[in-house]
Amino acid sequence: MNCNCNIGWPIRSVAIFAIGLLFGCGEDQAAKSPDKQPALPKVGQMINFDDILDQKKLVNPPTFVEVAKSLGVSFKYFNDAREKRYFFPEILGGGFACLDYDLDGWPDLYCSNGRSLPLDLTDTEHFDCLLRNKKGTELQDVSQLAAVRENGFAHGCAFGDLNADGFDDLAIAGFGSISILYNQGDGTFSRIASENFVYQPTWSVCPVISDLNQDEIADLLVVNYVKWNYEVPACTYDNIRGYCGPGEFDGLADYLFLNQGDGRLVESGQSMGLTSVGKGLAVAIMDWDHDLLPEIYIANDLMANFYYRLGSINPMRYTDDGSKAGVAVCVNGLKEASMSVTPGDFSKNGWTDIFVTNYYKQKNTLYANGGRGQFRDVSFAARTQKTGEMFLGFGAVGVDFDKDSWLDLFIGNGHVLGPEHLPNQLTNQILHNDSQGFDDVSSQGGDFFKVLTLSRGVVAFDFDQDLDSDIVVNHLDRPISILRNESATPNRSVSLQLCSPHHKPLEGSRIEITMGGAVQALPIYAGGSYFTDAPKEWIIGTGLAETIDQVRVYWRDGQVDTWEQLETNQRWQFQPGRKIRI
Amino acid sequence: MTSSSDPIPKEDRDHRPNRKVKAKRRSKILVAVAVFVLAIAASAYLAAGFWCDQQLQQANDSLTQGNLGLARVSARAALQVAWTQERRDRAKLVLARATLSDETLDEKAFLDAFASLEEIGPASSAYPDAIAERAKQMLLTQIRVRAAERLLKEAVHLEPKHLASNQLLFTIYCLTNRPDRADTAFWIGFPQIPAEEKPAAFRQWFLSQFTRNGANRAFDVGTGIVPPNIEPSDEDIIKRFITFKDSEPDEATHYGAMASWWLWRTETAEALEILQIGQERSTSVAEEVYLSSLVQALLNQGNFEQAKELLEQWPESERGFNYLRHLGVYQESVNQTALAAQTYRKCLEIWPGPIDANVRHRLDQCLKELGHTDEALKVEQQTAVARLWLEERWGMVRKAIDYMHDEQAVGVLLEFFTAIGKPEAVEFLNQYQAELKAKP
């Protein structure tokens, strides 16, 4: 026995035995110290933080120059925001439709606008705006000439040929109204007859035009947001009043208007399977699983996102397969507050991924398409968590600004709680895709990326037709920005677009290009980003290559056209069985 | 000496008592005296021991009743008659407690009391109590959280179910953002908590598992970080972490804990900045919370290779829930789906079991990808149930925990913990509900 007992009195020699018996002596337990654990690494030897925290510097950085003023554009979205009022519709903002309404080969720009709140029919100041592209040198306001005097509280807009006359028509969704404007082919638009378009007004936010029932006629899908009314008071965050979020309100089912071919658009959402109640803000329609049928992806605010597939159960009915496909919630199973949806083959594996912007301190999510429409949230690996968590992203577009063939991202940011809450305005971002993931290179992108704004809708289109993507951004707090892409790079690019015979919708078709053994999908989609609709044209970099090895076009009717060795730095249009240099 | 000098005549010499007999007699007397002395000593010892124990009991009772002065008088009296080191230690312990709890005394008294606690050695049965008391003082008066934690670990090493140590460890783990460890410490100590205190303790545990700031309010107020009657804000929580860091600047845990709080708020850049400061200032080893925060930050940033290197350095003995969760995320990210599924399964066996819907969801996705449809379906259903409660019904649950005296509220909690599968909580709530029902 290892006895450590001590007796503190002189009789210890007499008492030691008795005491030993009475109290016993403990084992030397201190020998088994819990601190004796295997060696942990020293903190100072862990990692080199400089490697992690340093910002990447690009050899060919992006350069975007704001040119709205020089193009004669001063349009500003009117949201009627008033101090301490907190009407929810004030914070959603507006978007764009990039249609070539006059078929002169130059994409024009339709801008949605808000109006006075509560909805004031006497408001004759605030109208939507149509800007005619005069060969890239001027965007002329032709709203009055074109008779597009829409004055609803509009958010999203879309274009498509609803009456198959060869001219793209317009759909505009807003708080309490949906408008359909038929392009009359003479430079003017006319409203759809009210008896041909019956619906229950609600808070509609984002329309999209595409053939949704496989009858080769364009239909209309309208994403609805939440049930809000003027009586709802402001919400309080940290004892400061601000705009309420979607969590305070019930969601709404979305509308699907089937085109009857006789001028009537009939709401058929329920019968077509769009039965889920959501809080949608953005939508994209395209063929993600390469079955030549379009799927519908709807980004919901604070709810699981929808991914409707046609024919999973019933060939003429949509089923929400979001959960099965891995695109409903984020990698941790959380429902994110999604704002926009951007399709693009960011990893160049031949399948189109989905990039979704989310709320502040959530990540922006990249769902990578592993094939056949099975997705995985790869936001950590692709660094969209890293680049997105301190932003609140709205519109986002995939653009290859340095023409290296990897799709980069432009994201418009801005907060929603109101000016009393910080941060409120945020800078916009440009993310460079280095083939493994994205790095924020905004600091190299020009002065625009230093400006704090409340950005909303974002669309990419090559307004000056110099074979790179320019960008238009809608803001709540300043006039729209038109950013000319002036990125200096020796790389080449190509413009590819499909032209449909008889003006049939193209969604479901796709282009695939092969370069250096890698296959890249360039899907034809409607909608995308936030409240916007971009031209059905892909401008993609080809590096220094003077030709593309192969271009393959998969038409939605099953026809496949293959073209070899197409010259780069050209604009190509494909029709079934034909390619045309334009 | 010669025989000629012998003064006793030879004939008498034969009649003298035998020397041996004499010696025997003498020994008997001596033995009798010795026994007598021993008996007296033993009696005195036992009497003193009895008296000492009585005084100790009185001191403890007074301490419990909050009569600190009387507790000190009794403890001092016990100390006077404590013949054994063991009794002296127990007396010192009570005296120190009665002194340290008395805010009217001066600093010298505190220092003396603390010093006397340090005199209690590891061989004493009072040692775990003494070090728990020292740890408590370190925590509350010196805010030396990690030093306190080390002492408490020593205490529970000696006495695994030591209530005060486990309770203090629970508090420290909450304060340093280690809910998994807090969970373990809590349930070890919970059975010994008096029945009337259990509902409040259970609420504390609940907050430690499902929130990241509420569980520390008492500490924040007690240590002056937050004024009384004011709900702690995010700034207060940061203030608490800064206090810890300033008090023990060498401890990597504090940087790790602060970083984990930023990570919980999805602010990875802030977390990395804190971790970098930790790396510059701390020379200590990278304890689990530092490692865990750093690995999570690296994974968030997509730095998988560096995360992998750190996972490899993670000591075997510390490879618990956090390690497995990070490892699973890493494996999933580099397409090692089967391994990731295996890791997530192990992870869910440890903590917090079915509560962690995020890990469950990841497991579900891996299983689907691997084509393990049946298991995936089961996991998906469990995840859906957890999510239903943690999201849609959460308001109801959160309210119920504040109304533990209400039978209906306890019913909600019981339903919640049954659904998400936390057997310890279910067992307690069943007992508690029965007690509530039995009350008139």
List the quaternary state of the chains.
heterodimer
Beta-strand portion of chain A reads 35-45%
Terminal-residue CA separation of chain A: 99 Å
> Count of DSSP helices of chain A?
5
What percentage of the residues of chain B does DSSP assign to strands (E)? under 5%
Instruction: Report the C-alpha radius of gyration of chain A, rounded.
Output: 29 Å
Tell me about the largest β-sheet of chain B: none
The overall pLDDT of chain A, averaged over residues, is: 90
Low-confidence stretches of chain B: none
Q: Nutshell version of this structure?
A:
Helix content of chain A is 5%, strand content 36%. Chain A is mainly β and 582 residues long. Residues 1-38 of chain A have low confidence and may be disordered.
Q: How would you characterize this protein structure?
A:
The complex is a heterodimer of chains A (582) and B (440). Chain A is mainly beta and 582 residues long. Chain A is 5% helix and 36% strand. In chain A, strands 21-20-19-18-36 form a 5-stranded antiparallel β-sheet. A 4-stranded antiparallel β-sheet of chain A has the order 1-32-31-30, with no helix packed on it. In chain A, a hairpin with an 8-residue loop joins strand 6 and strand 7 (169-175). The termini of chain A are far apart. Residues 1-38 of chain A have low confidence and may be disordered. Chain B is mostly helical and 440 residues long. Chain B has helices at residues 10-15, 19-65, 68-81, 85-100, 107-118, 127-140, 145-158, 163-175, 179-189, 198-210, 217-222, 234-247, 252-264, 268-281, 288-301, 304-313, 321-333, 337-350, 357-370, 373-392, 394-400, 407-420, 423-438. The chains are: A mainly beta (582), B mainly alpha (440). The interface between A and B is large, with 59 and 75 residues.
What is the fold's blueprint, element by element?
The complex is a heterodimer of chains A (about 575) and B (about 450).
Chain A (H helix, E strand, L loop, with lengths): L11 H12 L25 H5 L10 E3 L29 E2 L11 E3 L17 E5 L5 E3 L1 H4 L6 E8 L8 E7 L1 E7 L5 E3 L12 E7 L8 E6 L10 E3 L2 E3 L9 E2 L1 E5 L5 E3 L9 E2 L1 E7 L8 E6 L5 E5 L7 E3 L1 H4 L12 E7 L8 E6 L6 E5 L5 E3 L6 H5 L4 E7 L8 E6 L15 E5 L4 E3 L14 E7 L8 E6 L5 E5 L6 E7 L11 E6 L2 E6 L2 E2 L9 E7 L3 E8 L5 E8 L2 E6 L2 E4 L1
Parallel strand pairs in A: 33-40
Antiparallel strand pairs in A: 1-32, 2-3, 3-4, 4-5, 6-7, 7-8, 8-9, 10-11, 11-15, 12-13, 14-17, 15-16, 18-19, 18-36, 19-20, 20-21, 22-23, 23-24, 24-25, 26-27, 27-28, 28-29, 30-31, 31-32, 33-37, 34-35, 34-38, 38-39, 40-41
Chain B lengths: L9 H6 L3 H47 L2 H14 L3 H16 L6 H12 L8 H14 L4 H14 L4 H13 L3 H11 L8 H13 L6 H6 L11 H14 L4 H13 L3 H14 L6 H14 L2 H10 L7 H13 L3 H14 L6 H14 L2 H20 L1 H7 L6 H14 L2 H16 L2
Helix pairs in contact in B: 2-3, 2-4, 3-4, 4-5, 4-6, 6-7, 6-8, 7-8, 8-9, 12-13, 13-14, 13-15, 14-15, 15-16, 15-17, 16-17, 17-18, 18-19, 19-20, 21-22, 22-23
